[in-house]
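[Automated response] Your request has been received and processed.

Submitted sequence:
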Amino acid sequence: MSVRLQSADFDVSAEVKALAEGRTDIGAVVNFIGICRAGPEDDRITAMTLDHYPEMAQAELERIEAQARGRWPLDGVTIIHRFGRLVPGDNIVLVVTASRHRQVAFEAASFLMDYLKTRAPFWKKEERASGSGWVAAKDEDDLAASRWEKRTSETP
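Generated structure:
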């Protein structure tokens, strides 16, 4: 398990290699990279700031990772979430899951992102030409996370 909060960028290839190198029990590695986007042309994001309480955020990310391990037979998980000021094109979050089976790795990665998006204690402030402001939670993110409430994994 590797759960990290950091302001520095991450190297996706190095993280995947660190998780899977020398392992012959892993049949699938899935990774998701969240990237800061500029948004619509008429009101582009010039930067965003991700703020957090370090101890609270670390504990919650570890709790979410433990939930994923409790639901799926995972052979490895890496979660890296950045904080600080980011500009369009910068990496924000990396989730890597490893398992014997691809479906398990895909489902666990999807679960982790849905839960990180809705439960991780980060506050996002967007800067635009029109001004800046804090971003509110989105109903569609809550809906995506709710699909996991009653669902359990079926190990292939």
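Summary generated for your ticket: The chain has a mean pLDDT of 92. The helical segments are 12-20, 54-71, 102-119, 139-146.
If you did not submit this request, please reply to this message.
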